[in-house]
Write a structure and sequence with these properties.
single chain; 291 residues; alpha/beta; seven-stranded mixed beta sheet; 9 strands; 19% strand
Length: 291
């Protein structure tokens, strides 16, 4: 996309939308749902297939209900992410809170001058979760990301994610950047439900299907011996989230191969089963088969 087209036509519209009050944001989201679900049918076959394979015990009616709720939620997350362009710190912390038990885990690690790794999935509003962390905890948040193919939108997402102080690492630079910043107390966030190459992945059963999982989180944790914290951004009601955290591995170097990966995958699976409509079902998670 041309830079001139983006900055003259697209970015001003996105910025204007971000200035709207939340009740109008969600009116727009309801309209977007109709367009995405009924008009364009965005990846509906992918979503319905993923849901059917993940929940074989559910009836067609139950699956259709989850599917519709998912598309409503997806549209909410899109508009909420745009809103992040101008959202205030006060509003952000009101809309996405970390509970006290979770905050105490990060406070203790910070007091020990211990960096850690946060592992999470595309569950709830993961974008808001990172921003709320930056406003709540003392650690320097570092976020791993895959650069987008469109440079304009890649820059937009980097600005949104770093607006309140987070640092961004391209996935390919992760270990180099983490080693370079070992003298700083950091919390590095890994999204664990991407689709890795099947040849180098760890294979497990996830949502009733053989699934490849990135081993990078576990390998880096073992190399640096950083504790692993699992985080979920649970939706409490429309536009409001709570960050829940558990320390799932305090000493990665004393674990067997695959143990950490299996553990955080099962934590995510449990969250998805409890609130299935808030996971990213339109992602082609199972496009690879085990050889």
């Amino acid at each position: 996309m041309g830079k001139i087209v983006y900055y003259i036509f697209i970015f001003p519209v996105l910025f204007f939308v971000s200035l709207l009050p939340f009740f109008i944001i969600y009116v727009l989201s309801d309209f977007l749902y109709i367009v995405v679900f009924y008009v364009f049918g965005y990846r509906r076959k992918v979503v319905s297939t993923n849901l059917k394979n993940a929940f074989p015990e559910k009836t067609d009616s139950e699956l259709k209900t989850i599917e519709k709720r998912y598309y409503h939620f997806l549209c909410d997350v899109i508009l909420e992410t745009i809103k992040t362009l101008t959202i205030s710190k006060k509003t952000m912390l009101k809309r996405c809170k970390m509970n006290e038990a979770s905050k105490s885990i990060f406070d203790q690690l910070n007091q020990q001058q211990q960096s850690c790794i946060i592992v999470l999935g595309h569950f709830g509003n993961w974008e808001w979760g990172g921003i709320s962390f930056s406003l709540t905890c003392n650690q320097q948040l570092c976020v791993l990301y895959h650069p987008l193919s469109d440079k304009n939108f890649d820059d937009l997402m980097k600005n949104i994610r770093s607006r309140f102080g987070a640092k961004l690492y391209a996935m390919k630079d992760a270990i180099r950047e983490m080693i370079k910043n070992r003298n700083e107390v950091t919390a590095t966030a890994f999204i664990a439900d991407q689709t890795p190459s099947p040849e180098t992945a760890y294979w497990t059963t996830f949502l009733n299907q053989e699934t490849p999982v990135f081993l990078g989180t576990e390998k880096i944790a073992k190399k640096l011996n950083y504790p692993i914290v699992y985080a979920s951004v649970n939706r409490k009601k429309r536009g409001y989230y709570e960050i829940n955290v558990e320390l799932i591995c305090a000493d990665p170097q004393n674990t067997i191969d695959g143990e950490i990966t299996e553990l955080h995958t099962k934590y995510l699976e449990k969250d998805i089963i409890a609130q299935p409509e808030t996971w990213l079902w339109s992602h082609k998670r199972w496009k690879h088969k085990r050889k």
